[in-house]
Amino acid sequence: MAETMISAFKNVASPVGLVYILLGGVAGMVLGAIPGLGGGMLTVVLLPLTYKMDPGLALGLLMAIYIGSTSGSCIGSILLGIPGTSSSIPTCWDGYEFTKRGDPVRALSAAVVSNFIGTMPSLILAMFLCPVIAKWAVKLGPWEYFSLCFCAITLVIALSKDDLVKGFISMGLALLLGCVGTDPVGGVTRFTFGNMYLLNGMNMVNLLMGLFAARIILMEYARDTKKKEAVNIKVDRFRWPAKDIKEHLPLIGRCFGLGAVIGFMPGLGAATASVLAYANEKNAAKDKEQWGKGAIGGVMAPEVANNAVIGGAMTPMIALGIPGNGAMAYFITAMSIHGINAGPQLLLQNTKVVYTLYIAAMLATVVVLIAQMAGMPLFPKMLTTPYHFLYPIIIVVAFLGAYLTSNNVFSVLVALFACLLGVFMGYFKIPVMPFMMTYILGSLLETNLRRAFNYGEHGLLDFFTRPVSCVLLIAAMISIVWNLFGDRIKERLKNGKS
């Protein structure tokens, strides 16, 4: 173990590794700060370019972008009142108030340090938890794995509370497209229509290119959401927020725990963690009337929580092969590019890659902290980056990346099809997250379902006679039923008490 960690550290600390971490962290921070972009788009665009890279360093680069983006999203929230990403929406409510009264540095400084406090411990926690969970997971059979994947997908669909039907439509589309190609168990070709390029199914990288990068740009190109007053904002140097940290230590601890737990649960993500953390801390605060008017706790709570999600989401991705959020889905795709399967065997078969990812993530956290502390006076200039320069570059690189995945034009057509599908889903407000989660886990879902029927003696009954499988299936059903009838149940309970 010690030799593996030393080897991983040497890999990250090499000149190439350090350049990847530095550039990835800074680029993610800049794109995370700009409303409407985010590091996720850059991650998708760079996926094809990681083919020739060292697997550990490729994942380290993507992790640096992810950490930089999550940390940088608070910049737009505080200076413009417009969140760079959805994870920093609650930060706007108090952070922008500091800017309006001429003291953005206090809010920015507290947010920057809160980002670090949320990220670093969560990564350390993930590094120790993953081996424990992986040792337990290798004992699971196809019944438990099917139920685990089904539960993960169901939890994501359950988030589509406003329209659960659309969540199931998103899942159905993913299952349909996942059937294209060669049957993972019997080797029979399905829905290829004689096209040899479809034998291996639709490339996940090409789907992501169209579904995210190209779709977002097509739908957002005509919108310019930046506020011109960013040019006139002046930000002084970073000030260490010792007093604010000391006064809010219990808040930091609670928000960290909340973020780590939510990160572990598939599909919830940083946006959910930040909103819940803000709501909980506002209700518990003695000065709750000040929240929304410029309370520093309202800045620190969501930023600690949404960064604590990072380590929490890494744990199921590495130990179980199930993405904790959308960003982790990109990492599973990047692993598949290099022939690496995420899951319980990952720590045994690719130990160096895993520890390279951990070390790169920790180093990226430090790099982003230093970059934000040193570059704070430059934050307003970052927000004035012209969209009409960025969008054409991204769209060209996205389709070029789609071509590079297999060096044929058919890959570009798949990306174009995914783009049109994404526009269709966006127009009818069909959520994308259930689609992505289902497409990634679809093969595992089908393979383990069919293996369970082949190995078992009682068909469907076997799924309910095995304790772990039964608990997971019941949890999946409860999540759907609660989202359908939860409000009615709460209302009846409330009326009953009154």
Report on this model:
This protein is an all-alpha fold and 498 residues long. It has one domain. It has a two-stranded antiparallel ribbon. The radius of gyration is 23 Å and the shape is globular.
N-to-C SSE string, H for helix and E for strand: HHHHHHHHEEHHHHHHHHHHHHHH
| Assembly state | single chain
Query: How much β-strand is present in the residues?
Result: under 5%
Q: Could you tell me the radius of gyration in angstroms?
A: 23 Å
Measured as a percent range, the helix fraction is over 70%
Number of helices: 22
Low-pLDDT windows of residues: 224-228
**Class from secondary-structure proportions:** mainly alpha
What is the tally of beta strands? Answer: 2
Shape, please? Answer: globular
First-last Cα distance: 60 Å
Q: Give the spatial strand order of the biggest sheet.
A: 1-2
Q: Write down the domain tally.
A: 1
Largest sheet: 2 strands, antiparallel
What's the pLDDT, averaged over the residues? 81
